[in-house]
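Worked example 3 (structure in, sequence out).
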């Protein structure tokens, strides 16, 4: 599973894990840690939108990936 950090407000930790890939979409889990309050959601995102987020720096590969 690949993990990407989401550009977030200072002090907040937000990241996205790719759970599953298809030809046109990713199934992802968003995790947001807002001062200890953790919220997770699972959604689909098109590859095109995901790639734009990486290219613009909104998503950055984490230094490690989760098994």
């Amino acid at each position: 599973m690949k993990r990407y950090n989401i550009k977030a407000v200072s002090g907040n930790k937000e990241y996205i894990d790719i759970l599953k890939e298809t030809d046109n979409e990713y199934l992802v889990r968003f995790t947001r840690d807002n001062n200890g309050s953790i919220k997770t959601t699972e959604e689909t995102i098109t590859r095109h939108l995901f790639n734009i987020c990486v290219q613009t720096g909104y998503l950055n590969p984490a230094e490690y990936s989760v098994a």
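Notes: Helices lie at 47-55. The radius of gyration is 12 Å.
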